[in-house]
UniProtKB/TrEMBL annotation:
InterPro entries: AAA_14, DUF4143, P-loop_NTPase. It comes from the Bacteria. The lineage of its organism: Bacteria, Pseudomonadati, Deferribacterota, Deferribacteres, Deferribacterales. It comes from Geovibrio thiophilus. The keyword Nucleotide-binding applies. This is ATP-binding protein. Residues 32-166 form the AAA domain. Residues 222-369 form the DUF4143 domain. The keyword Glycoprotein does not apply. Keywords: ATP-binding, Nucleotide-binding. One of its GO terms (molecular function) is ATP binding. Gene3D superfamilies: P-loop containing nucleotide triphosphate hydrolases. It holds the Pfam family DUF4143.
Length: 425
């Protein structure tokens, strides 16, 4: 195993990393902490590592950089004890580097049971900076939090934001250019239906769907079935399909349990809750609660469900473009979720889609694809005004397809904006 690690390290140090698109993440290179990148599979974590490595190469020799991808077939099977060969093999090749800072990148490290103990030891005892990636939120919520105890900075990585998507397609953003705006609007339609996984961006519609189906299989079997020993695959697939076909809607897992039972599934209520939580652990889906002053009250109400990528809805729903409002809502959710994990919906006399605190500022957003109808417009604005009073806010947003204006009532301002402009603002 040591010789394999030596080969992998050397081959990577000699490799040129071309065509890497810089993403909207500010990952520190010189941090004293272990830097952890977590997120759904294929969302671009490796490319972000490569971007960091390219930046590093401007300051340090390539020989001071170690990169290991634990999904490399040459490393199967790898166990915890084998990890010791990484640094020992490296120092055998370059003994002088024991006295220099070495940057160690461990990609998809969650594949090795007990990896945290190894990372903690080398971080504590060697002159190194460590970066790790993984495809399960377990790394964030449980394994990293408990095992690396204060030693880590964790960054959640998502598929492309709309700004990243435009950059990948070579579209320049200039709000004052009619030409630029035309390209942006055209790209938005594609982004909404096909999503933002990096590998899909430049592919044809058919290839995109095939790639997304493969991704779902990978998430289901690698991050859920294998990890949790799932026996009832058909039930899991049903819950996945249900989730992606119902983005932006209120979902009661109790009701879902009763529906599944009536369809002949033999299951317990705990199974439904467990399977759904596994989907959330794998960053495939998210759910947000109603805003209440107690967790007990939040849990008593149904949650709204969202997908990590708009493209997944189209894998199961052939008529995805018939419901642009839900695609808009999911895109808005993802834009907010990149900024904070604490997102709620508001329910009073009216409902408001999103409330959160991002970068120290309260944010209140309603999403309505079209507000041509006076009744729809009034409902959306009144919901925001009610929530603004409840949260004591003076500003809110109403996101639409094309409308742009500023609505004012007393000391309250509602910015009505087209989605493309809000996502880029």
């Amino acid at each position: 195993m040591r010789e394999t690690f030596k080969t992998l390290i050397t081959d990577f140090q000699e490799r040129k990393l071309d065509n890497i698109i810089s993403r909207e993440y500010d990952i520190p290179v010189g941090s004293e902490k272990i830097v952890s990148l977590v997120g759904v599979r294929r969302c671009g974590k490796t490319s972000i590592l490569f971007d960091i490595i390219n930046s590093l190469k401007k300051k340090v020799p390539s020989e001071n950089i170690i990169y290991v991808n634990f999904e490399d077939d040459r490393l199967f099977p790898t166990e915890l004890g084998d990890l010791n060969h990484i640094m020992e093999g490296y120092y055998e090749m370059r003994p002088e580097k024991r006295h220099e800072t070495v940057y160690v990148f461990l990609d998809e490290v969650q594949n090795i049971a007990g990896w945290e103990r190894y990372v903690r030891r080398i971080y504590d005892t060697l002159n190194i900076r460590v970066f790790v990636t993984g495809s399960s939120s377990k790394l964030l919520s449980k394994e990293i939090a408990t095992s690396l105890r204060g030693r880590t900075l964790t960054y959640e990585i998502f598929p492309y934001s709309f700004a990243d998507f435009l950059k990948a397609k070579g579209i320049k953003v200039n709000f004052n250019s009619s030409d630029s705006v035309s390209y942006i609007k055209n790209a938005l339609s594609e982004y909404l239906t096909d999503g933002g996984f990096p590998e899909t961006v430049l592919q044809s519609a058919d290839i995109k769907r095939r790639i997304l189906r493969d991704y779902l299989d990978l998430i289901v079997y690698k991050d859920i079935v294998e990890r949790y020993g799932i026996k009832n695959n058909s039930l899991l697939k049903h819950i996945i399909k249900y989730s992606f076909c119902n983005i932006g809607t209120l979902v009661s897992l109790n009701k879902l349990y009763n529906d599944l039972k009536s369809q002949g599934y033999k299951l317990s209520k705990d199974t439904v809750f467990d399977y759904y939580s596994y989907l959330e652990d794998a960053y495939a889906v998210f759910s947000i609660p109603v805003f209440r002053n107690s967790i007990k009250e939040e849990n008593r109400n149904p949650r709204k469900i969202y997908s990590v990528d708009n493209g997944f809805k189209g894998v199961y729903d052939a008529f995805v473009t018939d419901d642009f409002s839900k695609l808009y809502e999911n895109a808005v959710f993802l834009h907010l979720r990149r900024q904070t994990p604490e997102i709620y919906y508001y329910s009073g006399k009216q409902e408001v889609d999103f409330y959160c605190v991002a970068e120290g500022k309260k944010v209140l957003v309603n999403v309505s694809y079209k507000i041509d109808s006076p009744k729809t417009r009034e409902r959306e604005l009144n919901g925001l005004l009610e929530a603004m009073e409840y949260f004591k806010m003076s500003e809110a947003y109403l996101i639409t397809a094309d409308e742009e204006e500023t609505f004012q009532q007393d000391d309250r301002t509602i910015h009505i904006l087209p989605l493309w402009k809000w996502l880029l603002g």
